[in-house]
Amino acid sequence: MTADFQWSKYGINWGSRSYVMGIINITPDSFSGDGLAKTPDESAWAELAAAQAQRFIAEGSDCLDIGAVSTRPKAQEVPYEVERRRLIPAVKAVVASASKKIPISIDTTDARIAEEALDCGASIINDISGLQGDPAMAKVAAKARCGIVIMANLRKDRRASVMSDVTRFLASSLDIAYQAGIAQEKMSIDPGFGFGPLPSENITMIRMLDTLKVFGLPIVFGASRKSTLSKLLAGAPPADLLEASLAAAVAAILHGADMVRVHDVAATVKARAVADDIRFGL
């Protein structure tokens, strides 16, 4: 089991600059159109994931995020056995082939999947339920002393304005984290762009992102290729959302994001360099 995780061990020193997390999807139905499991040959999925990881590292990705369940609205539920069959071989292949030490995040809401992935060399749990899905997840993260991304998911829980809802959800999730014994230095938060808010509210989320600094935690942000951007561009398909995704990533960085989660690593790394110079004066 991964222990004594340190973000800085991987060169991630929060507050000094922003970071890029490259997305690797082992799914057949990803909203972004990049799911590696679209390939019928299941035996090729792990090799494809490793190749994508190597490309992302070469392009300057600071972190990798591997998931095997589509998070698009109304996506079909994926059984544990299927998620495990897609994800675990891919994690093993990525860890074995990584050309340099880079933190690997596991995008899952299943504590069993997270625990096994950590045993295989992953070092971060990215939980889109914000620890409010599987009751065992917080305990797994605390025991492993791994990094964790705690996301606000408003798909079933709207009450007031978007940022007050996000803040309330994250406060509840962080209470779960602290109660389980997860150390503050292992945590980061994600406001959940696209997970419940209307398109206009997602844009407000970017504009008001720095209000989440009240939690004193790094902010991870992901708008890459999401439907809000498509709607802003008259229904453009995911393949035509590069410029929109870059604009959202840069705006998020300038409003306080510490890490952006993206599909297009090379272009984002270049855009990030400019955003960081504006924000940090590098």
Explained architecture:
By secondary structure, the chain is an alpha/beta fold. The chain has one domain (7-275): Dihydropteroate synthase-like (TIM Barrel). Helix 3 packs parallel to helix 4. The model has no long low-confidence stretch (mean pLDDT 92). It is globular, with a radius of gyration of 17 Å. The longest helix has 19 residues, at 162-180. The chain is built from 9 helices and 8 strands. It has an 8-stranded parallel β-sheet with strand order 6-5-4-3-2-1-8-7. Helix 4 (137-144) links the parallel strand 4 (124-127) and strand 5.
CATH topology: TIM Barrel
Low-confidence spans: pLDDT under 50, at least 5 residues?
A: none
For the terminal residues, how far apart are their CA atoms? 37 Å
Q: Summarize model confidence as the mean pLDDT.
A: 92
Order of helices and strands: EHEHEHEHEHEHEHHEH
* Separate helix tally: 9
Q: For this structure, what is the CATH homologous superfamily?
A: Dihydropteroate synthase-like
Total strand segments: 8
Number of domains: 1
**Strand residue content:** 5-15%
How do the strands and helices of this protein lay out in sequence?
Layout: E1 19-25, H1 45-59, E2 63-67, H2 80-97, E3 104-107, H3 111-119, E4 124-127, H4 137-144, E5 147-151, H5 162-180, E6 187-190, H6 199-207, E7 220-221, H7 227-232, H8 242-254, E8 259-262, H9 265-280
Parallel strand pairs: 1-2, 1-8, 2-3, 3-4, 4-5, 5-6, 7-8
Helix pairs in contact: 1-2, 3-4, 8-9
What is the gist of this entry?
This protein is an alpha/beta fold and 282 residues long.
